[in-house]
Amino acid sequence: MKSIITRTIKFVLLCQLVFGLSALQPPATASESNISNTSKYAWSENAGWMNFHPLYGGVNVYDDHLEGYAWAENIGWIKLGSHTEGGTHVYDNTTMDWGVNSDGSGNLSGYAWSEMAGWIRFDHRDGQVTIDPDTGSFDGYAWSENVGWIHFKNSDPAYNVARKDILLSLIADPDEFSEAAGSEASTVTVTRIGSTDTDLAVTLDSDNAKVSVPDIVVIPAGRASADFTIDAADDDIFEGTHIVTLTASASGFADGTVTVSVTDDDDQGTVVIPMQYAFEGSTVTLDGSEFPVPGPDDVIIWRQTDGTEVTLSDSAVINPTFTAPDLGSDGDPTLIFELTIKDIGGPEDKYRVAVIIERTEKYHSADYNPHDYRISLSELLRVIQLYTRNGYHCDPRGEDGYGVGYGDQSCQPHDSD
User: Fold this and answer.
1) Which of 105, 142, 191, 226 could bridge to 150 as Cys pair (CB 3.0-4.6 Å)?
2) Which tens digit of pLDDT belongs to each residue from 225-241?
3) Residue boundaries of the structural domains of the chain
4) How confident is the model at residue 160, as a pLDDT?
5) Distances in Å between the alpha carbon of 261 and those of 147, 169, 230, 312?
């Protein structure tokens, strides 16, 4: 009688376990899995493809455990653990607390459950499953008594399971340099940390247009690094530090960034001269009155470093001229010029001038024929003539469409009125 009761209790416990597991279903909403949208398949010779990021369900990888659901067409849902709250959890792998653990170094252990395939072990003595801490890529084999080995990564045909929120890691060498070194360009090597299984696209962005970099650099599959050139011609950027940002992107991973700083530290006492102002279209003379008089052996070099580009009359004289540009709708009104006076065989001095171009909204009332920012003698005499005769009238045959004295005044007023 006692043995019958014992067998009955064992049967009840078994039913509770089996039917309790059978009642577990994936959520009816779209998956919030952190498994890659593309790298999400494992393979079993007997059970077929297993999708770790299906439309519903989905597996989530945490630092110390896995949870959620994978889907296989031939064996249905596979649950990775009884815990469903995320955060920190280590499964005891008992009747009420079972699942797949991670030891923090990427080694998985414990069990998943399938109603049709039974228990699936992730740390079988002949087939450990691992997750690469750097890339998030699964590897190795899990074991099921009913469907055999489940393979998580293969090269031909290519498939694997991987996390999508692993941060891509990059190293730039050098990660800083000075454009005062005299070289017009510097070569930077960008190296990825972790897997080299796929091409890795690295986009580049400079915060200063005068620090030139390529739009993209690709680290090919099988290689850990690639080189690119930062072109920052000596003396062609303002003093200070400018940043080039490198961003790595790959399917199934979170973007990773690294920066390279470019510093112009060749300031040898640059003197900033008070700003000048000029109107569009006017002739501007760069004011050298603040500069020391160059000696007979000094070399004079003017160059424009910022703003709407203009042409200097002569970059080797102390006071060159240029025509103030028409700014249009988006022109830069601040023009920056730098003068270098070099003593052959000795030091050099630098001076900086800013010229602010102001938009011209109106011509002077006497500057009407033509509008050229000049009041010619003929324009001046015509204004005096109209003034002394106490009036004018419309005369299409007149030299400017008007006649002196009274008459028809139905036309537009004279420009000088």
Assistant:
1) 142
2) 999 888 875 444 545 57
3) 18-163, 169-264, 271-358, 375-417
4) 94
5) 55, 18, 10, 32
